[in-house]
Amino acid sequence: MTCKELTLNGLKYVDEQSGEEKNIPRFQDDSGYKYSEKEKEIKDSLFLNCRLRYPDVDPYVLEILIDYYMHHPEKMAEGVNKEWDSGFDPEALENQNKLNEEWKEFNKDEED
Fold first, then answer.
1. Residue 1: which of 16, 102, 77, 100 has the closest Cα?
2. In angstroms, rounded to a whole number, what is the distance separating the alpha carbons of residues 85 and 87?
3. Which residues lie below 8 Å from residue 8, measured CB to CB, with a gap of 6+?
4. SS3 7
5. Which residue of 26, 77, 106, 112 lies most exposed, with the fewest beta carbons within 10 A?
6. Is residue 31 very low, low, confident or very high in pLDDT (cuts 50, 70, 90)?
7. Partners of 14 in the β-ladder
């Protein structure tokens, strides 16, 4: 099989049992979100704004996030405003800074 069997309508092939030429239609994905014209304009505007602000983020990820935001704004806001554990411990940082200062003071005394 070569690429010439692949057409706009799908993949042409010859059935080995019957010898009949058949076609496997192309996949049609109609499962996505439906938008009105106004919603499409809003989505496009959000997408372009996000692409300008976050050029290193994959466009497909941006599109998924924008779709989710447009259809589930409450859940998106809840997720954004939710407290989350970043693993950052301010007390540990403060202790580390104190130790660093003590170390500098200790070494300063030896240099004199």
1. 16
2. 5
3. 26
4. strand
5. 112
6. low
7. 21
Output the CA torsion sign for 68, 73, 75, 77: positive
Find residue 25's DSSP bridge partners.
10
H-helix segments, the chain = 37-53, 59-71, 73-81, 90-111
pTM greater than 0.70: no
DSSP designation for 5 = G
SS3 23: strand
Residues above pLDDT 70, as percent of the chain: 89
Quote the CA–CA distance of 38 and 27 in Å, as a whole number: 28
Kindly report each contact of residues 9-14 with a partner whose C-beta sits within 8 Å and lies 24 or more positions away, as own/partner.
none
Instruction: Please give the Cα distance from 1 to 111 (Å, whole number).
Output: 79
Q: Is 10 left (phi over 0), alpha (psi -120 to 50) or beta?
A: left
Contact 70, 43 (CB under 8 A): yes
- In the numeric block, the tokens 């499962």 are attached to 31
